[in-house]
User: Which sequence fits this backbone?
């Protein structure tokens, strides 16, 4: 499992700049007020119709995507978000292969170059800390679309938004996080956001080789959040408001025997759904392999495709807050 660096919490103080969102790099850059602003905008984005004033708010702006790792949801929802708000997109997928990174260009030089062509840059990179490195040299907003096993802050925001929309509250919720918690950047970032709400309880259910890392546990403890490591998924399912399943990330294992040992240990299937509370939901950042069986998809508590759709609205909100003229709720 990755060793992990110390997690920071800057609040939103360093993140607002002239009534705009400066960067979206780390979940720790958000405080509750900042999350509220994003969610208020996201709710409005659910209602944006084509060819209206609201659908042209980013007209004339250009977003660049630099993806060094594969993606379906994050890249396409960012691109859709920009298009739905009237902006345009410069897209690079497989950037390690098809950008000048293949010729040895550093991430810093690529960012310094691309910022001349685009008003914001969305980056997915295989190295933890890469989005922070990009933000350190960038003069345009950097949106972290996942930095190796580090952070995935826009996913965490859409996850939190989904919990709010599905359960109706964030205070006092019980969240079971399941699967590859050592490599799962989504659960790491989500824990940081959940830690801002009162009486949250987190259960970690993971195979031995991919347990939640100590930095996240320390982060939660320091903020008075109760967390427990459990081995019985059925017990957790009976108590949870949200069961957040994750994929065992084959690509992050050096030893395939360890991958084989971790895979298939915790599966959400029809039997498990019988234990889940009628008011609870199952979430997953996707993609899934086999950790949620497909016969669960028709259960109304299966929220993962609604969750993916919410990614569009939250990313529309983030792009607007980064690029459009000052937002009245944001400090100068
Ligand atoms: N949830 C998520 O990050 O999905 P993609 O890898 O498809 O972008």
Assistant:
């Amino acid at each position: 499992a990755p060793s992990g660096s110390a997690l920071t919490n800057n609040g939103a103080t360093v993140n607002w700049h002239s009534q705009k969102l400066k960067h979206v790099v780390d979940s720790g850059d958000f405080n509750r007020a900042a999350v509220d602003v994003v969610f208020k905008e996201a709710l409005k984005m659910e209602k944006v119709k084509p060819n209206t004033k609201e659908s042209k708010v980013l007209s004339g702006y250009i977003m660049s995507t630099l993806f060094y790792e594969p993606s379906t949801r994050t890249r396409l929802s960012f691109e859709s978000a920009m298009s739905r708000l009237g902006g345009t997109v410069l897209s690079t997928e497989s950037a390690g292969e098809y950008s000048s990174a293949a010729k040895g260009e550093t991430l810093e030089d690529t960012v310094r170059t691309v910022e001349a062509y685009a008003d914001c840059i969305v980056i997915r990179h295989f190295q933890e800390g890469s989005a922070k490195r990009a933000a350190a040299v960038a003069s345009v907003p950097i949106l972290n679309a996942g930095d190796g096993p580090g952070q995935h802050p826009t996913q965490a925001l859409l996850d939190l938004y989904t919990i709010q929309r599905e359960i109706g509250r964030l205070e006092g919720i019980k969240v079971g996080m399941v699967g590859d918690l050592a490599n799962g950047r989504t659960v790491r970032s989500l824990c940081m956001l959940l830690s801002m709400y009162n009486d949250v309880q987190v259960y970690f259910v993971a195979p031995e080789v991919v347990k939640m890392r100590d930095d996240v546990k320390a982060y939660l403890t320091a903020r008075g959040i109760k967390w427990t490591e459990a081995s019985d998924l059925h017990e957790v399912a009976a108590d949870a408001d949200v069961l957040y399943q994750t994929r065992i990330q084959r690509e992050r294992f050096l030893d395939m025997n360890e991958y084989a040992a971790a895979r298939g240990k915790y599966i959400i299937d029809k039997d498990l759904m019988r234990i889940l509370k009628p008011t609870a939901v199952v979430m997953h950042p996707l993609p899934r392999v086999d950790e949620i069986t497909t016969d669960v998809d028709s259960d109304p508590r299966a929220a993962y495709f609604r969750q993916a759709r919410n990614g569009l609205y939250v990313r529309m909100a983030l792009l607007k807050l980064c690029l459009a003229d000052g937002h009245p709720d944001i400090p100068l």
